[in-house]
Amino acid sequence: MTIDILTGLLVLITGFYAWATFRILKANERVVEVMHSQSEAMTRPYVTVTPFIEVGSPVFCLKIRNAGKTAANCVRLSLDKDFYRFGEKGKDRNLAELPAFSNEIDALSPNEEIIFTLAVARP
After folding, report:
1. Contact by Cβ (8 Å): 67, 48
2. Cα separation, 63 vs 41, whole angstroms
3. pLDDT per residue over 28-49, tens digit each?
4. Residue 123: pLDDT above 70?
5. What are phi and psi of 83, to 5 degrees?
6. Hey, what long-range contacts does 40-45 have (CB within 8 A, 24 or more apart)?
7. pLDDT of 55-92, one tens digit each?
8. DSSP track, the chain
9. Is it the case that residue 114 has pLDDT exceeding 90?
10. Rounded to whole angstroms, how far apart are CA atoms 64 and 33?
11. pLDDT band at residue 25 under the 50/70/90 scheme
12. What's the predicted TM-score (pTM) here?
């Protein structure tokens, strides 16, 4: 009789350990997923588009920059409208027709930037 009770108690304890081990396994899997996501986010390319005014100059510019840690491959820039730099119409003045906007950029290295002049501010 005592052996039956002890055996039953051992089965319950073993079941508890199996359940606790399974929970620990699932928690570790979630931690690994989060760490993988964080690692990917830290090492991926981040292409930013920023309008700015040059210091000491009334020129408005547009900066395309890869702020990430790795190269951005096959970058395609596009504009939904024609934009004529400095308000002057002409083939070489339309931002949408420049090679950076009409062709795919093979790679944009980390911290590499492309700057386009847009317009001049008038007082």
Report:
1. yes
2. 22
3. 999 999 999 998 888 899 999 9
4. no
5. -135, 115
6. 42/69, 43/68, 43/69, 43/70, 44/68, 44/69, 44/70, 45/69, 45/70, 45/71, 45/72, 45/73, 45/108, 45/110
7. 888 899 999 999 999 999 999 999 988 899 888 887 77
8. -HHHHHHHHHHHHHHHHHHHHHHHHHHHHHHHHHHHHHHHHHHS--EEEEEEE-TTS-EEEEEEEE-SSS-EEEE----SS--BGGG--SGGGBGGGSHHHHS-EEEE-TT-EEEEEEEE---
9. yes
10. 32
11. very high
12. 0.68
Reported residue count of the chain is 123
Six-digit token string for 84: 């004529």
Distant-in-sequence, close-in-space partners of 119: CB < 8 Å, separation ≥ 6: 59, 60, 85, 86, 87
- R_g over Cα of the chain: 29
Centre a 10 Å sphere on the Cβ of residue 19 and count the other Cβ atoms it contains: 10
Instruction: Give every CB contact of residue 44 below 8 A, 6+ residues apart in sequence.
Output: 68, 69, 70
Handedness of CA 85, 87, 93, 94 (dihedral sign): positive
